[in-house]
Amino acid sequence: MRDRSGITFRITGISSRRLGWIADPEGLDSTALLSGDIEALRAQSGGHRDVRQWLAAARGDVLFEATSLNVENGQPAIDHIRAALEHGAHAVTANKGPVVHAYRELRDLAAGKGKRFLFESAVMDGVPIFSLFDQLPAIHLQGFHGILNSTTNVILSHMEEGLSFDAALKKAQELGIAETDATHDIDGWDAAVKTAALITVLMDVPVRLDQIAREGIRDLAPSAVRNARRDGWPFKLVCRARRTANGVQASVAPEKVRNNEPMARISGASSYVYFETDIFPGLAITEENPGLYATAYGLLADFVRCVK
User: Fold this and answer.
1) 272 pairs with which residues across the strands?
2) Is the pLDDT assigned to residue 258 strictly greater than 70?
3) Do the beta carbons of residue 232 and residue 262 sit within 8 Å?
4) With helix as H, strand as E and coil as C, how does the chain read?
5) Dihedral of CA 297/61/204/138: which sign?
6) What's the average model confidence in pLDDT over 277-302?
7) Closest by CA position to 121, among listed 301, 306, 300, 298
8) pLDDT of residue 2
9) Better-predicted residue by pLDDT, 64 or 34
10) Which one from 194, 236, 256, 308 is the annotated catalytic residue?
11) Rounded to an integer, what distance in angstroms lies between the CA atom of residue 193 and that of residue 209?
């Protein structure tokens, strides 16, 4: 197959809990992939038992890693990416865990192998945050703040309209924005991991999650949320980081935001981040209600960067 960038490619391996490890270096049946014909796909499997066997069988040049976030240690995504780089493939992920828990190791391993470790979709879907700073050499990032978790933003928006917390969460789940278990979002873990990823990569300061002061939106009373909006100080789950003499101070917490600030206008599934640098005092990026393909686009863009 060939994409619009003129890159010729074929899918030689796919793996999931449901499918197992399926590989064919000549290319998997695209019709079976699109139709979800599991038996046809499994017929191409060689009975591989782990990621290293599967990589060797698929002979892939690029690995797309898209497992679920493990807040505690970033596994199994870290092992998958490490195996891909050691195999000699570029590694592209949408998972924040490897960035927070193993960025320097994986970055250095990729460099040593002459490959790329890219993760644009880890924060704000496919918006080019990390690659933007690749285009800004010698910039010194002093800090940032923003709204990086769309699920809590949707919940707060519905609470402002009069729904209870539980009803607002259910509404977000029905819209497909919140997961069945939305604990990571509600309690601020997702926002904290994204904050840690930006600090680790863009500020070049490794940070543990327990170093980020974290508070979610679970305990916000609906009446307080409605009254804050009425008074022109809406609640937002705000991520903050600032360079200090002792490293970086960071937090995630609900804050009342003045109505005339850009963050106050971020509603629904939108996101926002404001960077403070030595050259540009303020550099802001807003993502307005991303569609279904935004995260997938980030993976595609990283793929193009790898192979171009």
Assistant:
1) 147, 286
2) yes
3) no
4) CECCCCCECCCCEEEECCCEEEECCCCCCHHHHHHCCHHHHHCCCCCCCCHHHHHHHHCCCEEEECCCCCCCCCCCHHHHHHHHHHHCCEEEECCCHHHHHHHHHHHHHHHHHCCCEECHHHCCCCCCHHHHHHCCCCCCEEEEEEECCHHHHHHHHHHHCCCCHHHHHHHHHHCCCCCCCCHHHHCCHHHHHHHHHHHHHHCCCCCCHHHEEECCCCCCCHHHHHHHHHCCCCEEEEEEEEEECCEEEEEEEEEECCCCCHHHHCCCCCEEEEEEECCCCCEEEEECCCCCCHHHHHHHHHHHHHHC
5) negative
6) 92
7) 298
8) 53
9) 64
10) 194
11) 7
CA–CA separation, 159 vs 168, rounded Å? Answer: 6
Task: Give the torsion through C-alpha atoms of 115, 121, 123, 125, to 10 deg.
Answer: 160
pLDDT tens, 127-176? Answer: 999 999 999 989 999 999 999 999 999 999 999 999 999 999 999 999 88
Indicate if 194 belongs to the active site: yes
Residue whose tokens read 């690749």: 134
Copy the structure tokens of residue 151: 């699920």
- Fill in the amino acid letter for 169: L
Count how many Cα atoms sit within 13 Å of the Cα of residue 86 in the half-sphere of its side chain.
10
Set out the domains of the chain in order of their start, with CATH numbers: 13-130+293-307 (3.40.50.720), 134-287 (3.30.360.10)
Q: Which two tokens stand for residue 41?
A: 């796909």
